[in-house]
């Protein structure tokens, strides 16, 4: 049974989540604050954590940092906050995904399944070497990209960027994470590098670069590869 830890101080939302998750045969624990969340996470070893950022005793970001000290459990942030820097801080602290309140239960459940699937896949597939979409394929081992039967030439920087995105399918990677990984910098004023390189990648790989289907921008946050 997949165990979910729900960390949320709104009793109505907790009730709705528990009912929906149990109906789909998840095991559910609920914590109304950060301290209980950290204790339950250690005691119950959940497979995924749903985490509200606005908790009565501590900021949700502190809970993420606490969990990440010892756990790789997928963390999905539930945030009512519109400010994207709060979400970015949560992702940079190690959250895997976020969903903005109010959300549809169907979307939440789909993201939850994806988060659990990613961790289940990891030990089985040691290294993703071939990434295929209906429009292009990427061989990470041979460093070869093919679109419509033709080789696509990519620069080393484009490769690096693409590699990070396609090896984390469906997962939002923040601007800071990409800048740090590819350029070794985290200054937000370098986000124009990212825009330029992402535009190049789309021109080379997407059928309609202005309406990308695979290399998705999350405005103000980062990028996501949808395989
Ligand atoms: Ca709250």
Automatic annotation (TrEMBL):
Modified residues (4-aspartylphosphate): 52
Top-level taxon of the source organism: Bacteria
Recorded GO CC terms: cytosol; protein-DNA complex
Residues in OmpR/PhoB-type domain copies: 128-227
Family matches, as Gene3D superfamilies: 3.40.50.2300, 6.10.250.690, Winged helix-like DNA-binding domain superfamily/Winged helix DNA-binding domain (1.10.10.10)
Subcellular location: Cytoplasm
Primary localization: cytoplasm
Residue span(s) of domain Response regulatory: 3-116
DNA-binding region: 128-227
Organism of derivation: Streptomyces yokosukanensis
InterPro entries: CheY-like_superfamily, OmpR/PhoB-type_DNA-bd, Sig_transdc_resp-reg_C-effctor, Sig_transdc_resp-reg_receiver, WalR-like, WH-like_DNA-bd_sf
Protein name stated in the entry: Transcriptional regulatory protein KdpE
Ranges that cross the membrane: none
Upper lineage: Bacteria, Bacillati, Actinomycetota, Actinomycetes, Kitasatosporales
